[in-house]
Amino acid sequence: MPVEPRSTPDMSPKTLLYVSGVSVSFDGFKALNSLSLIIEPGEMRAIIGPNGAGKTTMMDVITGKTRPDEGEVLFDDAIDLTELHETEIANLGIGRKFQKPTVFESLSVFDNLRLALKSDRRIFATLFARLTSEQRDRIHQTLEAIHLSARQEELAGALSHGQKQWLEIGMLLMQNPQLMLLDEPVAGMTDAETEQTVTLLKRIAGERSVIVVEHDMAFVRNLDCRVTVLDEGQTIAEGSMDAVQSDPRVIEVYLGR
Amino acid sequence: MGPLSSRLFALESHRNWQISFSIGAILILLVPFLNLAVPSDSWLHISDFWVNTLGKFLCFAMLALALDLIWGYAGILSLGHGAFFGLGGYAMGMYLMRQIGDRSVYGNPELPDFMVFLNWTELPWFWQGFDMFWFALLMAMLVPGALAFVLGWLAFRSRITGVYFSIISQAMVFAMMLAFFRNEMGFGGNNGLTDFKDLLGFDLSEPEVRVALYVISAIMLGLVYLICRFVTTSKLGNILVAVRDAETRVRFLGYSVARAKLFVFTLSAILAGIAGALYVPQVGIINPGEFSPAKSIEIAIWVAVGGRGTLYGAIAGAFAVNGAKSLLTGIAPEIWLFFLGALFILVTVFMPRGLVGLVRQWRERRRTIPSPETSHAR
After folding, report:
1. Which residues 173-202 of B are in CB contact (within 8 Å) with A?
2. Residue A84 three-state SS
3. In angstroms, rounded to a whole number, what is the distance separating the alpha carbons of residues B140 and B18?
4. How far apart are the C-alpha atoms of B321 and A216, rounded to whole Å?
5. Which of B235, B259, B308, B353 is the best mutation test for A, with the most CBs of A within 10 A?
6. Which residues of chain A carry a pLDDT beneath 70?
7. Cβ within 8 Å, pair B252-A86
8. Which end of chain A has fewer CB atoms within 10 angstroms, the N or the C?
9. A120 — contact with chain B (CB < 8 Å)?
10. Helix (H) and strand (E) counts for chain B?
11. How far apart are CA B301 and CA B295, in angstroms?
12. CATH 3.40.190.10 is held by the domain A12-100+158-256
């Protein structure tokens, strides 16, 4: 895994992502209801909650796809994400993996990663772009990490569902983001693939912050990180998996209805 | 310049360069030789008519390449590409009209016949400068490029995609046809521009001049192919394919989808304009018929028949469909449109990857041991 040294470790902010009092409603339905969330640099955080709890809407707000009706979303203590466009937010260093893996099926695995590589995004720069050997090395390192070295020449459309998820995580890594948002990264994976994904994500966190939204409880437990439980657009519990699972409100939400 | 030229050579494999050069040599050397040097009673002789027809096909192939660049790669189906082709053609036509001078029917050294007929006394401002060849050539590229830039800027910025964009482009070409039909527009109305005499002093009725135009078209087709190939094999080419597959995802990677589309759409229009400018001196006329929606749809059929997203498929499609058209309209002109419609349906249903896909399938089947399962999976 390529490790980019944090520029000035002493000056690094205490919070990477600061979400406070965010509300979003669609036609009167409150998808997020004064939601607050704080993510520290290098932290891995799992977010769980029943369907319609607002997990995807929360990701939409952070990545600029949805504008909140009220509330604050700050990145790196200073940058107001509610003012920025999707592209600008992506370039800031916030990467997102969607629920459905969307890799570019008609491009090779290698070219998928090449497109994701942090580089000059302007049109004429891309027309004349050539890979430096350093960039090539980075792509190969990532290929190694996501277990797809042997299949780099193949079209991404030929990969299995689980492999596509890895490729997408790899594409996020190529952008070298400070914050990664992963929406159901192990959906449709075999048990062995899920296990490999746990190892992969644990290696990734630490160098950068990772937010994982997932339904698979066994997987979340294996991640061994702080867990936030959402329900009806609000945080109802936060803490270790064990603490959260013994919380009466959480039990009510998951079993009560 | 070093890295650029090395990339140019890397555009094709060694074998493909050999194939391209062989086809190019046949088109550029053999056809003119068989036309000019072989006596006309020999069975090897290629008639002036066929040289001229092939010259037109070369221009159509350029136009098909321009459409394949945006449709086959970026997924933008323009059903109005005739507009850019036609504008390039009009720019060249205006130069050729100005070259007629006082040899016209009314003999006015300054004004083309249709203006004299309309009782105009001076040349409209937009006809200024077209007595200079370089200016006309520049306009043949700039005007289509500018129109595409404006249309694309409005459409792609508002994220108009798919069938909605196709309808808008079709509406644009239709509006242009109606506008150019009007005499007051100053482009000869219904009749368009015709009765051309010479180009840079060369008499357009001379067989040698026609052969020269044909050879220039063949060379330009090669150049346009290389330009398209340069774009599609670049990282930008990957971005375009990615836009076709999953536009939103490209946006999340931090690329501007609108700018990528705008660039390739404008480039495509410029290439179409060049094709139009080469077409007009070979057919000797340009009129609003080039802007008819049916003609623009026909371009999409060439590309679909040849096979989208391969470039050489577009060239093959343009030659195949227009070849069939030349033959069929000679034998039974009334069935041509039915044939074209049927062809489009058959290609869409049975060979979605066009002629190119058919050849590939056939080669794969020959290479692998025939087993029903593998051949069905493809």
Report:
1. none
2. coil
3. 32
4. 55
5. B235
6. 1-13, 255-257
7. yes
8. C
9. no
10. 17, 4
11. 10
12. no
Is pLDDT of B90 > 70?
A: yes
pLDDT(B376) > 70: no
Query: Measured between alpha carbons, how far is A174 from A4 in angstroms, rounded to an integer?
Result: 12
Asked if residue B319 lies in contact with residue B57, where contact means CB atoms within 8 angstroms, the answer is: yes
Q: How far apart are the first and last CA of chain A?
A: 44
Which amino acid is present at B119?
N
Residue with token string 């437990």? A221
Cβ distance of B235 and A115 shorter than 8 Å: yes
pLDDT per residue as tens digits for the range B43-67: 888 888 999 999 999 999 999 999 9
What pLDDT does B378 receive? Answer: 36
CB burial of B71-94 (b: ≥16 within 10 Å; e: otherwise) equals bbbbbbbbbbbbbbbbbbbbbbbb
One DSSP character per residue, B208-252 reads HHHHHHHHHHHHHHHHHHHHHHHHHHSHHHHHHHHHHH-HHHHHH
DSSP reduced 3-state for A16: coil
> Could you say which DSSP state residue A18 is in?
E
The chain B residue lying nearest A60, using CA atoms, is B252
pTM reported for the whole predicted model: 0.84
In this structure, what are the phi and psi dihedrals at residue A14, rounded to the nearest 5 degrees?
A: -75, -35
Residues with Cβ within 8 Å of B203's Cβ and at least 6 positions away in sequence, in order, are B197, B209
Q: Where are the domains of chain A?
A: 12-100+158-256
> Of A68, A10, A45, A28, which Cα lies nearest the Cα of A180?
A45
Sheet holding A17-26, edge to edge: A29-39, A17-26, A70-75, A79-80
User: Do the strands A94-97 and A226-231 form a parallel or antiparallel pair, or are they unpaired?
Assistant: unpaired
Q: Enumerate the residues of chain A whose CB falls inside 8 A of the CB of residue B1.
A: none
Query: d(Cα A27, Cα A129) in Å, to the nearest integer?
Result: 46
Q: Which two tokens stand for residue B118?
A: 């309309």
Per-residue model confidence as pLDDT tens digits over B301-329 = 999 999 999 999 999 999 999 999 988 88
Residue B114 DSSP SS3: helix
B41 Cβ contact list (under 8 Å, min separation 6) = none
Structural element, H or E, at residue B331: helix B312-331
Cα dihedral B109, B111, B117, B119 sign: negative
Report the distance separating Cα B107 and Cα A177, nearest Å: 72
Mutation to test the B interface, candidates A66, A85, A128, A175, most B Cβ within 10 Å:
A128
Residues B156 and B165: their CA atoms lie apart, in Å, by: 9
**CB distance from A116 to chain B under 8 Å?**
yes
Tens digits of residue pLDDT in B264-289: 999 999 999 999 999 999 999 999 99
Please list, in sequence order, all residues whose beta carbon lies within 8 angstroms of the beta carbon of residue B50, skipping any fewer than 6 positions away. B35
Q: Determine contact, residues A77/A15, Cβ cutoff 8 Å.
A: yes
Q: Return the amino acid letter for B375.
A: S
DSSP class of residue A87 equals H
Q: Using alpha carbons only, what angle is made at residue A33 by residues A30 and A35, rounded to the nearest 5 degrees? A: 145
